[in-house]
């Protein structure tokens, strides 16, 4: 029976407080992270990680990064607003 990561018997989510917004809910873990997040915040944290990687890569190759930075800032504002609920 596959419940959690890599077929472990432990569930992949548990109840607790989200590390970003503080809501008490089912929490998700992201690979390489010790923090636990609600579904909304886990999606935003994962997206912010990917955007950071893309911005760094584009910056190194001299590509335009304005659109990526704008998206990153919008994501940050959304996460900040969620912490103030």
What's the story with the biggest beta sheet?
3 strands, antiparallel
Distance between the termini: 38 Å
> How many domains is the backbone divided into?
1
Counted beta strands? 3
Strand order within the widest sheet? Answer: 1-2-3
Instruction: Please state the structural category.
Output: alpha+beta
Instruction: Assess the beta-strand content as a share of residues.
Output: 5-15%
Radius of gyration: 16 Å
Please tell me about this protein's structure:
- With 85 residues, this protein is of the alpha+beta class.
- It has one domain (5-83).
- The chain has two helices and three strands.
- The protein has helices at residues 39-61, 66-83; strands at residues 14-17, 24-29, 36-37.
- Strands 1-2-3 form a three-stranded antiparallel beta sheet.
- β1 and β2 form a beta hairpin.
- The longest helix is centred in the middle third of the chain and has 23 residues, at 39-61.
- The protein starts with 13 loop residues before the first strand and ends with a helix.
- The mean pLDDT is 87.
Please describe the structure with a list of short key phrases separated by commas or semicolons.
alpha+beta, elongated, three-stranded antiparallel β-sheet, 85 residues
In short:
The protein is an alpha+beta fold and 85 residues long. It contains two helices and three strands, in the order E-E-E-H-H.
